[in-house]
Each structure stands twice: as C-alpha cells, then as structure tokens.
Amino acid sequence: MGIKPHPARYPLGLPEFFIKFLTDPGDLVLDPFAGSNVTGRAAEDLGRHWLAVELDQNYLKASKFRFGPQMSLV
Questions:
Q1: Would you say residue 48 lies in a domain?
Q2: Taking 70 as the threshold, does the pLDDT of residue 65 lie above it?
Q3: Per the structure, how many domains does the chain have?
Q4: Nearest to 12, CA basis, from 32, 35, 40
Q5: Counting Cβ atoms within 10 Å, is residue 12 exposed (0-12), middle (13-18) or buried (19+)?
Q6: Reported pTM
C-alpha cells in the first residue's frame, strides 16, 4: 500500500495486557503518543473507548488501515 511503517512498532499483546489489567470494558484509554495506533486497536478489540494523540499526521493517516473507512481523524 506504499505506507512507511512506524519505526517503533510493538506487538498488539503489549498494550492488550495493560488495558486488560488496568481498565474495564467501557473505560477510556488515552494514548498520548499514538504512532501506528496499536493501542487504539487493542482498546477497541477489548471493548474500551480510546483517544489517540499523535503529532505526525502521516502516522495517524497510516494507522487508519487498522480500523477501516469509518475511522475519522480530527
């Protein structure tokens, strides 16, 4: 797809572990350094709401593939 990957990606299991440990379904998960938004994907899969913050718009645009066309960038 011609998308340059984020240089500091980590496996889905890492944020998943902490989200399960520290939150309950329906809670809000904040990722202030979203990068490729693995944390947002894990939060959504676990039934949490999530908010991602990332200064580099290219990383946010690239993370949309994790969520499908309904994801909006604000």
A1: yes
A2: yes
A3: 1
A4: 40
A5: middle
A6: 0.82
